Amino acid sequence: MDTEHAHHAMPRVALYARQSVEEDQGIAQQIADCEEEVRRRGWLVAGDPYPDNDVSGSTTRGSKTQWAKMLKAFDSGEFDVLMVTEVDRLTRSLTDVLDIRPPRRDIRVVTVRGGIDTEDDDYMLKQLVLLAEREVKIKAQRAARYARERRRAGHPSPGKAPHGYTWVAAANRDQASTRYIIDRDEAVDVRQIFKEFLSGSALGQIARDLNTAGRATRKGARWHTSTVRRILMNPLYAALLPPTQGGASFDLSSIDLSACTAGAWEPLIERDHLVAARDKLVGVKANHQGTARKWLLSGLAICAVCRQPVRSARGTTHPTARKDGSGTAPSRSYHTYRCVNGHFMRGGGIIDEFVSEVCISRLSKPDTLNLLAPKSDTVDVRLLHSQRIALGNRRKSVLKQLAAGRATDEEAEEALDDLADQLRAVDSEIARAVAVDPLAELVDIEDARAWWHDEERTLARRRTVVEALMTVIIHPVGYGKRVTGLDAASEAVEIGWKGRAR
Ligand SMILES: [Zn+2]
User: Fold this and answer.
1) Residue 16 near residue 83 (C-beta atoms within 8 A)
2) Going along 96-169, which residue ranges are E strands?
3) For residues 300 and 308, what is the distance between their CA atoms, to the nearest angstrom?
4) Measured in angstroms, how far is the CA atom of residue 492 from the centroid of ligand 1?
5) Around 136, how many Cα atoms within 13 Å sit in the side-chain half-sphere?
6) Are 119 and 108 in contact (CB under 8 A)?
7) What is the DSSP letter of 369?
8) Can you give the pLDDT at residue 369?
9) Centroid of ligand 1 to alpha carbon of 301 (angstroms)
10) For helices 271-281 and 225-233, what crossing angle results, to 10°?
């Protein structure tokens, strides 16, 4: 047998492998099976195999796939036979088969299992792919129908439950087939986030407090302004199932709450509280919420001279000679407040302590109930809700008129803009009505000192209390005069009581 003859007699085989989920084991096994079949037939493997990992058998394959590379290799004459383990590893779409079979190309396809060889019979391959294609279509229709029914029953799409809930697997569901159950531990974070935010804490502050308390997100990551914000915007916490959205990423801010379906799980948060939180956040960029504060009074106390909010800064002690003569002690860094216009910079620890003492003694007086802003009797939340529903219905009727051709685009747009304005107004009234007074939980506490120093208390909470009670004014004192005790602090710090705290 001469080499020229051998070249023609021995088909050069390209190996193709595919799976739709990333998993190397499956690909490696397919290639091993193909290689063994090539050996068994005494054929030759031509070049490296073409493994398409994480590529679907039913959707169009892009130019970056190994499939596309394989087609190019055939066009430049690199192989004669394409081998796969089974037909469905090749494709589940007839379009792909038309790419490799005449008239477009004449690639001979051989399978390890199922006995396909297009040299004998082209019909079987096409029939098998047609069947696979039909199966894919039926499965997709069935899945879409099931998803519609599931949504109508208020069940969320399968996947990860949001922080605060646990996803219940099909086998473990109750009679109502509930998908989300409350995760007691994580739910604490969600409730705290809403409570703090509606009491006036900034997003960054809430995140910082969670991190300080050693709380982590589901992934074990630190909390950020953005993750706190996503929690506050998420309708799932009020057991509201948002309408499905097209597009790759889910946009929380564009969800229309009136278009949500009632979810079939226990809410963690009242709907009004969610509306209030969203009302404060939608359309507001995350970084508009200010920076996180590490100290009680930064950004809160003001300079007595220029009335500007003070900043916190790091001060450093001068290296001092040790008493025992063993050289100098290293300089230490400590927390200070400073005026942005340079009117003073002084130790912050003692000022924080002083203001804390003033707050505790004010909250220990028997009249704390009087500190609360009176809940306006004129705000009727139920009435606001019925107004909300009425506005939603009018919106629907405008859309119907537009669809029926009884209104022009301009007329409809004007009416919808007007309705949106009214809806926003109602929402912010609801938000005001349900916003939590920062002092509310202090009304029935017996020990203000214990409350203030409780480890559970966050810096954000203490700051909202200071802010509700008073304006802290820091005075510059004579150069070189250090504020070291509470008495000295009382000279440097002036308390301007607010409204009902006077
Ligand atoms: Zn100043």
Assistant:
1) yes
2) 108-111, 165-167
3) 9
4) 13
5) 15
6) yes
7) G
8) 67
9) 11
10) 130
Q: What tokens appear for 450 in the block? A: 């214990």
Q: Which residues contact 80 (CB under 8 A, 6 or more apart)?
A: 11, 12, 13, 46, 108
Token pair of 305, please?
Answer: 């001279």
Residues forming beta bridges with residue 227, ordered by sequence position: none
Task: Return the pLDDT at 402.
Answer: 86
What separation in Å is there between the alpha carbon of 238 and the centre of ligand 1?
45
**For residue 247, what pLDDT is reported?**
52
pLDDT, position 12 = 96
Cα 330 to averaged position of ligand 1 atoms, centre (Å): 31
Quote the ligand 1 centre to 304 CA distance (angstroms): 6
Q: List per-block mean pLDDT (blocks of 10 residues) for the chain, which spans 502 residues.
A: 54 94 82 96 95 87 93 96 94 89 92 92 88 88 87 86 93 91 96 90 89 91 92 94 69 78 93 85 52 79 93 77 70 83 88 93 80 62 79 87 86 85 78 70 79 80 88 79 73 87 77
pLDDT at residue 460, rounded to an integer: 81
| Distance from the first to the final alpha carbon of the chain | 110
For residue 187, report the distance from its CA to the centre of ligand 1, in Å: 43
Report the predicted TM-score, pTM, of the whole model to 2 decimal places: 0.53
- If you measure from the C-alpha of residue 497 to the centroid of ligand 1, how many angstroms do you get, rounded to a whole number? 20
Strand partners, 313: 336
Distance 349 CA to ligand 1 centre (A): 19
Question: What HEC string does 187-252 produce?
Answer: HHHHHHHHHHHHCCCCHHHHHHHHHHCCCCCCCCCCCCHHHHHHHHHCHHHHCEECCCCCCCCCCH
Query: What is the C-alpha radius of gyration for the chain, rounded to an integer number of angstroms?
Result: 35
What one-letter code names the amino acid at 23? E
CA of 484 to the centre of ligand 1 (A): 21
